Each structure stands twice: as C-alpha cells, then as structure tokens.
C-alpha cells in the first residue's frame, strides 16, 4: 500500500503545513494508505473490499431507504443486484469496458447498484441532473457520446431519439437485477486500471459553460479512502451510521458519498425534499445521525421555529456548496447544542473535497477547515503569479490523487485549468491562516470591481444573512458609470438597501447549493 504522506521536509511549519522552501501547503491530517497506482483495481472492487473488511454482519442491514415510502434495500440484495446487473448488461446488451453510459434518473434505490455494476465492467458512467433542460442534456450527450442510456419513463422524453435507452422503472430492468444467481466475483474477467476513466460528471467548470469532468477509478478510490479517514464518528464506537442525502445521486459528491456509505456498511436515506420540517421528520423516523445539506438549508433551519420532532439521534450536519457565515454557525449551535456542524470545501474538478472542518475545530468559525489528507495547495498572487504565505490572499491551486484528469472534449479548458505539474486552478480567492485553516473569500469571477477595489459578494451576503428578517440573499455586480460596478443585493425578504436591491421569491442556485449569480446579473440588467 502506498502512503499519501509524502511530506517530510524539515522546512514545513508544523502549525500551518506551509513549506517555506516550496511555498506549498501540506495536509496536517494523519496519513493513510492507498493502493499502489499500478495495482489493477476498479472503484467497485475497492469499495466492496472495504465493506467486507469493516464488518461481516451487514447482510440484512438496510443500505438504502426511500425517505417518503420507507421502502429499503438490504446489503444482501444490493450485492446481488450488482452482480446480476453486471452479468446481464454484459451478456444481453454487450456492454463492455470503455463504453459510456449516460444516466438520467430521479430518485431510485436501484441507481447505486447500476453505478457499481457498470464501474465493475470498466464502463464509464455519466450521471446527469434530471432537472436539466433538454438543451443542456443534449449538450452533455454530445460531449460524452454514450453507447447506452439509462432513464425513467418521466425523464426519457428529454433525450434525443437516436440513443439506446433502458428504462430503470421498467419490468425489463427489474429482471436484470435479479435473474442471475450464484455468480462469481463481479468483473473477474474485466481488467480495470486505476488510471482508466470511471466517470464523467458535469460541472460549470471554473469558468464557462457546463463541462464534462473526467474522473478515473484512481480518483474515486482516493476520495472514498479519504472519506473513510475523515469519518467524524469516534474511532472504536460501534454505531450504525444512518445518513441522509438530498436530491438524486448525480454529481461527484453524491456519487462518492454513496460509495463511502457502502464501504462502511452504513444506511443511506434518500430524500427529495428541501423542507426543514421534512428533514426533522426523517431524523425522527429513521434515527438519522448524519445529514448532508447546503448552507441555505442551515440558514433556514436557524430561522425556523423549533419543531415537535425528536432530534436526539442527530450528531453531525455536513454543510457543503458555499462557506457558512460565523453568526449562522453560532446560532445553529445555540439552537442545537448536541449537533456538530462539519464544513467542507471543494469542487467537482478536485474530486470533489479539498478541505474539511471537524467538530473539534469549532473555534475556527468562518473557515472551511484544513486540507484533507490527499491534497496539497498553493496560494498564487493574482497579478504576479508569486506563491504566497499564510495570511495572504490569492487564488487557491490544489493537487492530489483525486484531482480530475481533465474536461472531456475540451483540451483548451483543461490546459487553462490544470498546469503541467498537475495543479488545479480553483478560481477561488482564498487564504490560509497560521494554523493551516483555509478561508474562502469568494469566487474570482464573481468579484465586484468598485472604484478599482475588489469587493467579495460573499462578505456582503453574510452581512445580510445576519439579519433575522432576511431568509436568503445574493449580491451581484451592477454597472455604474462612476464606480464601474456597485453591489446589488437580491433578498428573499425585505429589509434595507445596500445601494441597490431587489426583492425576490427565491435565490436561483445550482444543484450543489451555489448561487447562480449570472442569472441574477442578467435579471438585474434586463429589469433595472
């Protein structure tokens, strides 16, 4: 096994992880081991090997639960479905290594089985957001050129007529999951290298239109291993991990979170709602102890009234998608003193998590935590390209075994995003403090140019959200003849102006919870 800890420089500051010689920030987390890159290994094989090494008493444990219906799939059924489906797809549909499978499905308990069966065959999975427009889905299909498409009767109408479609909610697909028994280990006759592409996940990229991010089996393996190493539950405590994740299982984070849950023998509750009350009910009904939610959800929970539900099982809430404001965290802790907030930062291209803040790091409010074990970073001056020290703001560059291989069909965008040494340019204005904690100031492309100064919208948004009369807010640049640009705020509930303001019913956001500022800018300019 190859260790992820390659940092042995005597010039590294043990407090910040910053090497004064290379100007590189290193992770301060305990190291862990990864399989040697040359080892033939698929992401499915690695995930299930961790499951079998974790416990032998998981067969009848629920792996997946539909939050609305309560329908569940046990680990025994899950493992059988993977084997039967892999064999069926290979035998009946001639699906083979290197093929691309485009997947367009809302909530389905069969999606994890589909993902892992395809990965075991060396098939590249390309899961898409079922809420995307026909135009965007057409663009994604043109990028990936799938040989087969998995959809449902509700989503298939969005697809071009010339693609081969298998309906996940059909009797035909159900039979593929169960028709074969007593199969040997899945993928035993398929040779998968860790360098082989495993998934294409869609991202807006650091700039520009939706792009297809190429992730290898090695990328997924490194991330699952890091998720395992970052498990917030105390070592040695035997507790069933029951977690909830919102929205369908597309995108790199949801894909990898599912694989993490599978590798640990945990139970994953799938929810399609964003309502606070529904989450409280799910916590009570399924004894959830871990939830993954966007920051806007935590803001809404803080400002909501306490409910009648029993939330005593809840131990951790993971916030990801955008930084949480200090006051939001403090108010949440006051309201829920027994629940820890875990902060995370990352992007799809980074595979996707680069930093996390653990419960014992609560004193570092405003930070997204320290670098995770498999990641190293640089802070680069925007004008000179100089590498900066702790406390100095610049663009964050990251590198590690989970960093993407590039963008499918877009060599120019790949070259603009990843340099020759494997450094990924995040497009985020950041700094590390003297203790190695990462602070996200804002997206560089979102910065407001006011009288020659760079004004981060996120700082103004945090200020607005500190007011209890405002449910949600977004700040965008607005053209101004004298200043160049001035901040314009969109708020869900009215309060007061910050030079220019618009009152709206909701703030448009991506599936990951990030504010879609371009939509607001277009709206501001077209409707002054």
Automatic annotation (TrEMBL):
Signal peptide positions are: none
Q: Which InterPro entries match?
A: AMP-bd_C (IPR025110), AMP-bd_C_sf (IPR045851), AMP-dep_synth/lig_dom (IPR000873), ANL_N_sf (IPR042099)
Q: Which domain of life is it from?
A: Eukaryota
Q: Which SUPFAM superfamilies match?
A: Acetyl-CoA synthetase-like
- Domain AMP-binding enzyme C-terminal: from-to ranges: 459-494
A Pfam family cross-referenced in the UniProt record is AMP-binding
Task: Identify a single GO molecular function assigned to this protein.
Answer: CoA-ligase activity
Q: Which UniProt keywords apply?
A: Ligase
The entry assigns this protein to a family as follows: Belongs to the ATP-dependent AMP-binding enzyme family.
Q: What is this protein's record name?
A: AMP-dependent synthetase/ligase domain-containing protein
Q: Which organism is it from?
A: Acer yangbiense
């Amino acid at each position: 096994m190859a260790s992820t800890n390659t940092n042995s420089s005597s010039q590294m500051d043990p407090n910040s992880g910053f090497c004064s010689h290379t100007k590189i920030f290193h992770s301060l987390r305990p190291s862990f081991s990864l399989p040697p890159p040359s080892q033939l290994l698929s992401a499915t094989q690695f995930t299930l090997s961790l499951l079998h090494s974790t416990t032998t008493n998981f067969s009848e444990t629920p792996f997946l639960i539909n939050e609305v219906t309560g329908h569940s799939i046990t680990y025994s059924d899950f493992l059988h479905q993977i084997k039967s489906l892999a064999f069926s797809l290979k035998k009946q549909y001639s699906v083979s290594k290197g093929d691309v499978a485009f997947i367009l499905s809302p909530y389905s308990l069969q999606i994890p089985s589909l993902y892992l069966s395809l990965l075991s065959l060396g098939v590249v999975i390309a899961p898409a957001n079922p809420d995307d427009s026909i135009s965007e889905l057409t663009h994604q299909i043109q990028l990936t050129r799938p040989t087969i498409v998995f959809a449902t009767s509700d989503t298939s109408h969005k697809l071009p007529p010339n693609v081969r479609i298998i309906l996940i909610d059909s009797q035909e697909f159900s039979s593929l999951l169960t028709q074969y028994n007593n199969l040997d280990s899945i993928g035993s006759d398929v040779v998968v290298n860790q360098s082989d592409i495993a998934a294409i996940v869609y991202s807006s990229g650091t700039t520009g239109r939706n792009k297809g991010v190429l992730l290898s089996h090695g990328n997924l393996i490194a991330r699952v291993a890091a998720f395992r190493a970052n498990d917030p539950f105390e070592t040695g405590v035997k507790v069933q991990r029951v977690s909830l994740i919102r929205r369908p299982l597309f995108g790199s984070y949801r894909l990898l979170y599912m694989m993490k849950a599978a590798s640990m023998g945990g139970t994953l509750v799938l929810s399609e709602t964003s309502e606070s009350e529904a989450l409280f009910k799910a916590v009570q009904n399924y004894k959830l102890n871990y939830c993954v939610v966007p920051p806007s959800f935590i803001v809404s929970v803080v400002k909501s009234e306490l409910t009648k539900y029993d939330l005593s099982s809840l131990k951790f809430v993971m916030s990801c998608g955008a930084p949480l404001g200090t006051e939001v965290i403090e108010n949440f802790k006051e309201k829920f003193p027994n629940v820890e907030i875990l902060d995370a930062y990352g992007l799809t291209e980074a595979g996707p998590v680069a930093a996390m803040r653990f419960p014992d790091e609560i004193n570092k409010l405003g930070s997204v935590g320290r670098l995770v074990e498999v990641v190293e970073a640089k802070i680069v001056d925007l004008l000179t390209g100089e590498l900066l020290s702790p406390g100095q703001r610049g663009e964050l560059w990251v590198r590690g075994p989970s960093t993407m291989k590039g963008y499918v069909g877009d060599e120019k965008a790949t070259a603009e995003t990843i340099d020759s040494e494997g450094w990924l340019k995040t497009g985020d204005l950041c700094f590390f403090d003297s203790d190695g904690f990462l602070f996200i100031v804002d997206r560089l492309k979102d910065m407001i140019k006011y009288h020659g100064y760079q004004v981060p919208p996120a700082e103004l948004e945090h200020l607005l959200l500190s007011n209890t009369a405002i449910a949600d807010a977004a700040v965008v640049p607005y053209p101004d003849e004298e200043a160049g640009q001035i901040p314009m705020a969109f708020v869900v509930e009215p309060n007061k102006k910050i030079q220019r303001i618009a009152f709206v019913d909701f703030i448009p956001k991506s599936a990951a919870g990030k504010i879609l500022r371009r939509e607001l800018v277009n709206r501001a300019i077209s409707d002054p």
